[in-house]
Q: What sequence folds into this?
């Protein structure tokens, strides 16, 4: 039927809107999935401040003093005493099994040693492999123990002679003083999820023209103009995703009432450029390969790891050369910088000109290349679509189903790419931003108004600390704040006039420190370096000329605090960011690639054989044989991720292959059965990639590694258990990185086998139902 609209921009846009409305997958992609992802993420981070992390206490003293310390710990808002083990072995079992995130060890004779001025130790053991929960628990425990120690009476016989004062740091937290995780993480995650969906939607819109639709009809609707065809096709998606960007900002600044501090016009223009860039990128990849499944896979490879290269979790200044270069080529990296600078930090507009120009250049480049490529295609003769051969029937029995499925994967380039090649590519690309492991030598500014020997000593100590380096010595606080706004420094230390005089009088001298908390890892490391430098200078002043291991120095330490707090990180003792994030992400990647590949095969079966082929794939023997084929194909990737690459990249690993294999088998089988189940409802091969490619990042925060389970609503926590990755990541990370035994992760192993059985039954049932529907349709 001829179009009621004459060829041109409106005709192309109208044609696209009608197609979106009629195509259920397109409608899900541009509306349902983004809104569902927003809802899940908003609920996940609904508790912006983490509370009641479970800790275990080993009290060998059992005195009134130790009880007072335990009560103070339990009263701290961020932690709660959940267990009271009798020894350290029990406490370590609690941490390895997940019953506690940290443990506190109070030694025997603790009260007696305090009264005898022996400065006994309280040891905090915390799970550094679970990075954010472990750090939050460690900070809460240190604060509560220090508060309890401050209430202790002075021991008898304490010297009343002269003692110099101390340097006391006064923290002024900039940008996010409450350390609100919604303001930090959710603000970055929402546009990250949206940018993946934007690129996939742009790719699906263009790639469908090379499959179920017609490139010639598309160009004809545009009157033969490639520019009109491209703009008209992408225009409806542009409108939808701009509205979704507004919804995301509404969640942050409206629902969560987080203030917007910057230039709204600049932020709006940046959002427009981001949407244009990723719609054009998705379109460009499809125009280059002219194969919808392959183009979508390439889109996923580029967009899915972008969160790491954007510098949110691990800062750009700590990345290696390749990671910085690759990140600079991603529009998301520049948009996130503008977003944080304007929405969170409120820097002057002119300080965001450089990232805005970079974002604009990338958007223009992506759109321009797409236009040029479409122009070339418009001038070339049309290619006849290849007709897929009918699906060959699998030989009878489990062995027959196994061999047929194995051959299908090897013979289908898109599925082979998802299940076999994608894990290799992700294994090389995904860890790149994090390989620096630690953030070192963060630039800070010092405003020294004292000009004394003490201030010079403190500055030298600050410059030699591993975490910080003094890169600016402005004469005024205003000049230092300007450097902070320009990202030249990330912290400011003020040394007021008269600091040395106050210390020599025996009084406490207060040093104001201003630390930018926009990026939490930078904030924590900067604060750590400054407080370490101040503590070292204070200890040296108190000890005077005493030897570091002498009694005079120990007496000085006792005067400063009657209890020594020893903070001991476990399983990831150096605090390496890659050692924390990459092992968990690898397991999630294995799930997502196998899930998409297995479900894609279901769509392929329907395309080539209809309901009958789908019914044949759903026979119990076929479901099991296909899962065994997937198991054999995925195990090399599993070994690559959990054995080979940890040694290559230097991550902590215990190398207990048999224990990991016991968990891996039900994990891979459950993912295969889940893919077969959902794939039995798909009628096209590309549906699986379209629906699942953007959910990896939200799923990562449901496991408990990056975001504590205690901070999640019960509904989210329960819902996350239906995915194999939740139990698999928790179990495999505990075994491979934390040295847990199978007994420690027994519940995870049981849950994975339960999921495998349930999803196998669902795959069989759904195929049987499809057979009934097919029979009814034939009738």
A:
């Amino acid at each position: 039927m001829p179009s009621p609209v004459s060829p041109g921009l409106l005709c192309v846009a109208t044609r696209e809107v009608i197609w979106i409305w009629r195509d259920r997958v397109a409608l899900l992609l541009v509306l349902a999935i983004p809104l569902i992802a927003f809802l899940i993420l908003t609920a996940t981070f609904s508790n912006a401040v983490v509370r009641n992390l479970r800790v275990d206490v080993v009290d060998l003293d059992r005195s009134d003093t130790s009880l007072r310390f335990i009560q103070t710990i339990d009263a701290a808002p961020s932690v709660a005493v959940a267990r009271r083990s009798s020894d350290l072995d029990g406490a370590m079992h609690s941490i390895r099994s997940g019953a506690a995130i940290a443990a506190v060890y109070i030694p025997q004779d603790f009260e007696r040693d305090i009264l005898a001025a022996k400065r006994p130790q309280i040891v905090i053991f915390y799970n550094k492999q679970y990075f954010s929960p472990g750090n939050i628990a460690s900070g809460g425990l240190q604060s509560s123990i220090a508060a309890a120690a401050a209430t202790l009476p002075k021991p008898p016989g304490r010297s009343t002679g002269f003692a110099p004062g101390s340097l006391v740091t006064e923290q002024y937290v900039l940008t996010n003083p409450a350390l609100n995780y919604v303001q930090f993480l959710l603000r970055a995650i929402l546009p990250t999820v949206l940018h993946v969906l934007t690129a996939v939607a742009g790719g699906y819109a263009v790639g469908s023209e090379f499959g179920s639709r017609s490139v010639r009809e598309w160009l004809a609707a545009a009157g033969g103009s490639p520019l009109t065809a491209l703009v008209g096709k992408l225009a409806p998606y542009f409108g939808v995703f701009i509205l979704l960007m507004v919804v995301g900002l509404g969640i942050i600044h409206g629902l969560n009432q987080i203030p917007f501090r910057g230039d709204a016009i600049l932020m709006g223009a940046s959002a427009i450029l981001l949407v244009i860039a990723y719609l054009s990128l998705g379109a460009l990849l499809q125009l280059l390969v002219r194969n919808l499944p392959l183009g979508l896979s390439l889109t996923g490879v580029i967009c899915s790891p972008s969160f790491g290269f954007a510098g949110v979790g691990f800062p750009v200044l700590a990345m290696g050369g390749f990671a910085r270069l690759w990140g600079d080529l991603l529009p998301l990296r520049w948009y996130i910088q503008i977003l944080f600078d304007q929405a969170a930090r409120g820097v002057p507009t002119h300080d965001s000109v450089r990232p805005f120009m970079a974002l604009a250049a990338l958007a223009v480049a992506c759109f321009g290349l797409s236009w040029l490529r479409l122009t070339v295609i418009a001038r070339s003769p049309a290619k006849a679509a290849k007709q897929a051969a009918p699906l060959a029937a699998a030989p009878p029995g489990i062995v027959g189903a196994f061999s047929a499925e194995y051959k299908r994967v090897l013979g289908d380039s898109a599925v082979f790419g998802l299940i076999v090649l994608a894990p290799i590519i992700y294994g090389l690309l995904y860890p790149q931003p994090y390989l620096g492991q630690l953030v070192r030598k963060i630039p800070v500014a010092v405003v020294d108004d004292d000009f004394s020997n003490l201030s010079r000593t403190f500055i030298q100590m600050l410059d030699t600390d591993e975490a910080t380096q003094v890169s600016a010595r402005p004469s005024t606080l205003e000049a230092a704040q300007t450097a902070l706004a320009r990202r030249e420094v990330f912290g400011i230390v003020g040394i007021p006039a008269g600091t040395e005089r106050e210390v020599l009088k025996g009084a406490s001298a207060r040093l104001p420190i201003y630390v930018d908390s926009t990026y939490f890892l930078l904030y924590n490391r900067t604060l750590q370096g400054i407080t370490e430098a101040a503590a070292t200078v204070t200890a040296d002043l108190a000890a005077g000329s005493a030897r570091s291991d002498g009694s005079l120095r120990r007496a000085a330490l006792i005067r400063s605090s009657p209890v020594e707090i020893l903070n001991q990180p476990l399983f990831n003792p150096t605090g390496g960011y890659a050692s924390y994030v990459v092992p968990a992400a690898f397991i999630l990647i294995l799930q997502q690639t196998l899930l998409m590949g297995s479900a894609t095969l279901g769509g392929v079966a329907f395309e080539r054989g209809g309901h009958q082929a789908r019914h044949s794939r759903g026979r119990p023997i076929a479901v099991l044989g296909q899962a065994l084929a997937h198991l054999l194909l995925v195990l090399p990737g599993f070994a690559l991720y959990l054995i080979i690459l940890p040694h290559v990249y230097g991550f902590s690993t215990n190398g207990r292959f048999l224990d990991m294999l016991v968990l891996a088998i039900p994990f891979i089988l459950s993912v295969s059965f889940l893919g077969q189940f959902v794939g039995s409802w798909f009628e096209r091969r590309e549906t699986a990639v379209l629906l699942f490619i953007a959910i990896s990042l939200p799923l990562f925060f449901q496991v408990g590694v990056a975001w504590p389970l205690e901070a999640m609503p019960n509904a989210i926590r329960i819902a996350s258990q239906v995915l194999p990755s939740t139990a698999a990541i928790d179990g495999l990370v505990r075994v491979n990185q934390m040295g847990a035994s199978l007994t420690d992760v027994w519940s995870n192993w049981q849950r994975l086998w339960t999921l495998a059985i349930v999803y196998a039954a669902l795959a069989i049932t759904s195929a049987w139902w499809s057979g009934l529907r097919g029979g009814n349709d034939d009738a």
In short: DSSP finds 30 helices and ten strands in the chain. Residues 309 and 327 are 5 Å apart (CA to CA). The radius of gyration is 30 Å.
